[in-house]
Amino acid sequence: MKRAAAMAFVVLASVSCGTTRAPATAGSSSQVPAPAQEMADTATPTATPSPTGPPKFSAEVTRVSRDRLPYSWRPGCPVHYRDLRLITMSYWGFDDKPHTGEMVVRKTVTDDVVTVFRKLYDWRWPIKQMKLVDAYKADDYASIDANNTSAFNCRKATGSSNWSNHAYGEAIDLNPLQNPYVTADGGTAHENAKKYTERPMKGKGVINPGDKVVKAFAQVGWEWGGYWSGTKDLQHFSKGGG
Q1: β-pair partners for 172
Q2: What are the Cα distances from residue 89, in Å, to 21, 155, 201?
Q3: What is the pLDDT of residues 118-128, one digit of tens each?
């Protein structure tokens, strides 16, 4: 009897102290959650907004009305105002910001002008301002003194009785303060431009021989006044020269 009782006790002890674990059922609280880092790795990334750049170059070519040219055109000019076009286009300012300016040229050269000024804008090449010369009552001296980039103006060539290429709408004066008209002896009529008479020189809006601005105009058949012998017109670009 004692031996049987002892055997029964051993069996009961092994059942109560067993290490076998029952399988967990679905939804059981015994499931182990995924590590925090693993959960973070599967999270949807947050998009970072990119900064907005300056607007792309734009140019609009339209007919120009007579009332937009109250001073720069008159009967007897070599080109009728109906053969001129107004270009409203982007330019990069001296303040490192985009601006919109206006320029009047002959209708036959609008593609040339837009091609070049698109390049200048894309290069961020600075232009001080771009207004019709009528803003200065077609006074060439006043427009230049204000460092105004302009094109058409029905006037005679400097020191000549012949029409300027500006009178045909086929010439542009670009940043005339930084790129003055320089006489053969090195002088200039504009006091505020005297420090810019030498070439080559560094500076914002300055044009130098062989630089990319000169080449851009040359690619559309325009010549630079900086290559003239004797007197040099550093601001001046014209279709076919002159």
Answers
A1: 237
A2: 82, 24, 28
A3: 999 999 999 99
Looking up tokens 């029964």, which residue turns up?
A: 8
**pLDDT tens digits, 206-226:** 999 999 999 999 999 999 999
> Residue 105: which of 56, 47, 167, 44 has the closest Cα?
167
Are the C-beta atoms of 9 and 16 separated by less than 8 Å? no
102: Cβ–Cβ under 8 A, 6 or more apart, which residues?
Answer: 86, 87, 88, 130, 131, 132
Supply the pTM of this predicted model.
0.78
For residue 241, give the amino acid letter. Answer: G
Whether 233 shows a pLDDT value over 90: the answer reads: yes
Return d(Cα 216, Cα 228) in angstroms, integer. Answer: 18
Sign of the dihedral defined by the CA atoms of residues 86, 115, 218, 83, in that order: negative
pLDDT at residue 18 tops 70: no
Return the SS3 of 90.
strand
What are the structure tokens assigned to 87, written together? 């270009």
How distant, in Å, are the alpha carbons of 21, 36, 119 from that of 30?
Answer: 12, 18, 70
- Whose tokens are 């601005």? That residue is 213
Angle subtended at Cα 12 by Cα 9 and Cα 15, rounded to the nearest 5 degrees = 150
Cα 218 from Cα 168, distance rounded (Å)? 19
Taking a C-beta distance cutoff of 8 angstroms, is the pair 206, 178 a contact?
yes
Average pLDDT over residues 41-62: 73
